[in-house]
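Annex B. Sample input.
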Amino acid sequence: MKLLKQFLASMSCNVFSPRRCSFETIVGHNDIKLILNKAILSERPIHVLLMGRPGCAKTMFLMEMMRRLKNSYFIVGSNTTKAGLVNQLFENEPKYLLIDELDKMNANDQVSLLHLMETGIISETKVKKTRLVY
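Annex B, continued. Sample output.
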């Protein structure tokens, strides 16, 4: 709790880069705000999964991050296929991939996300065409 108070106090001093999200439209959830801001400011890839009942601000966090973070890409898992996701990753090369309703995404389509998280590599092979990004 002491660390959380210190972090929240330092947030008001503008010592963070402009990539930081204030999440001022979201009431409470200070622990989640802390974790997400640490993930945003990290130089290494950080994967965060928000779980909870409907109406507990998960989508609000993603929407705020989408608005504030340059080079972010937002998708809804229930409307996303592996082919569409891989294509967007190659075309946009987002630093932040924000996925809402991941649990509603087809399990076969989630495999490319798992591979990306484990290796940092996204690849696609089609007839006479191969793309690879590290």
